[in-house]
Amino acid sequence: MSNDRPQPSLKRRYELIPQMRAYEEMRVVWVPHLMNLYQPNYRSAVCNTDENGFRYTFKNASHLSYADFQREPGPKGLLCGGSTAFGVGATQDSCTIASYLNRDTNMTWFNFS
Fold first, then answer.
1. pTM
2. Looking at the predicted structure, is the pLDDT value of residue 108 above 60?
3. What are the distances in angstroms from CA 61 to CA 29, 38, 56, 58, 72?
4. Residue-range domain boundaries for the chain
5. Is the distance from CB of 70 to CB of 82 less than 8 angstroms?
């Protein structure tokens, strides 16, 4: 079956949580010594990745790629982990844990998941 016509169980899932379609369409890329990252330069209304496959993190209404994060002055933190840290299920990049941390701290956080 094509992605345009999901199976009945997926159809109901996408009715309840439509953003999950973007996560399920994103490819996983195997990387030596890391195991995997998500597809580099992935674009959707829900989730976007930089040239390295890291999800964009928001700070001060701007998105940060990993290169942008490295140039940020001051203290920095990396949020590492699996699906929850990456933000699977979040409705947009600005709704991930790392992006929320950037709203309430003097540190710059990056989603390194």
1. 0.74
2. yes
3. 28, 23, 12, 6, 15
4. 8-111
5. no
